[in-house]
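The authors assume throughout that readers already know how a fold can be written as discrete tokens. The format is easy to grasp once an entry is in front of the reader. For illustration, here is how one protein appears when written out as sequence plus structure tokens:
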Amino acid sequence: MLGSLWHGLKLRLTTQRRLPQKGDRVVMAMSGGVDSSVSAALLKQQGYKVEGFYMKNWDTRDERGVCPSEQDWHDVQQVCDKLDIPCTQVDFVKDYWHQVFQDTLDAYSAGLTPNPDVLCNQHIKFGSLLDKIPSDAWLATGHYCRTDGYGRLLRGKEPAKDQSYYLSTVPWTALQRTLFPLGDIPSKQHVKQMAHDMGFTQVAAKRESYGICFVGQHRKFADFLGQYIDQPAGQAVNLENGQVIGEHKGLFGYTIGQAAHIHHGPHKWFVADKDLETNRLLCVPGSTHPTLFHQACVARDWTWIHTYQPTDLDVWAQVRYRQHPLKARLTVDQDGRYRVTFKEPIRAMAKGQQVVVWDKDWCLGGGIIDDIIPATPPLA
């Protein structure tokens, strides 16, 4: 698909990245979870000089946050002690607040659906953390993805756990210095079994975390955001006829395509749009309503991992991490924004989401959805 482009890219690179060697220093970004713990152990087995870095991104003194960072830091120390490697806690609380959390709040307040994990990888893990690492050392993370000799970002071996989506804004210069020990591991269950075999029973038994850690396992994300975003409740209306069908609790707490949890009549209602000017939640009956399907999206703040700027490509694309990759065409609009047109209409695209494109397993980059184009002709 991108054969000629890749050929030209290799000519420009002239040489492969420096490949890791036994005895090289590797800084392992550790979270206290099973993935980073097993990664650190694998790196040590392979002969690297490994040290653990734990990133403190949230101030636990904020009574509104419940991130179990002290327990995570304790688990990191236990794993590092067992591996006989040094570990260090680094404070990125201010960086995270200003470069990730505040932008996330602003986006939700504006009716968008941002992805804070993409921002965290771009600005904190592969930004602030990488800046603290000596230039002759490698950074390693527990992401399920791979790189090759040229620093290309590739999908992980297990499609269901591939995390290259979250790294789509990380520049090639950072990927050249990064190792992904879990990229070739066949399954998450295999990683957990490895953790048990290595004696990491505590981290192997921990629940897998999803999203922002300080929201907590037993709190609704909308309830958490409500402590920071001051938006009033308002009317929920039927998009088809404008009839009021209930009340929403604040537009920031709803995402396009999700169940609206409005009890009115025989239908189950789903979010189709949000009108910030009138503070109304626009809903449609049924999860397959034609309004929920879109053909294309236009993205801003586009990042090409290798800095080249192709203008017309057949790609595989995703607008959500868990979404199955779909065939699409990538073009450039007259205003310079990238347009991703899907071969088949897809359900529930939302402004603010990250759209990411691949050539087969090679992650090329992505951008933030700025506009969405309905399916044409409309689905019957």
Notes: The mean pLDDT is 89.
